[in-house]
Amino acid sequence: MLKRTFALSAIAAAMFSMPAIAQQDDQAAYAQQQMEQMANEPVTEEQLEKFVYAIGHIERINEEFVTALESVETQEQAQELQINAQREMVEAVEDTGLTVEEYNALAYRLQNDPEIQQAVEEMRESDSY
Fold first, then answer.
1. CA dihedral 16, 17, 21, 26 (to 10 degrees)
2. For the whole model, what pTM was predicted?
3. Could you read off the pLDDT of 63-78 as tens digits, one per residue?
């Protein structure tokens, strides 16, 4: 289950960072620096709860995206699906009260901090998420 969480957080982080690819290099570097700085800040229980809740919604959106992607016939249709899925993921994260930047910082922490990994895994295994 934790590997799936890692994969989904990585997918979401990649999708959220796609607009940064189109930005100038200095803007992308600044965004990366901000995320790394936030990743070093203390994480509250409330932030983790919001993060776990967002992951659940992102999983659903991702599953729908993958299913819909199987039926597309053109690259344009695939891009439209991807844009819609990205927009839905952003909305899902923001609906929890987290910003996309906070979510990405937590996803980064999830991949690099064993304590965060354990806390998220325990929350994911509980029936409330």
1. 130
2. 0.72
3. 999 999 999 999 999 9
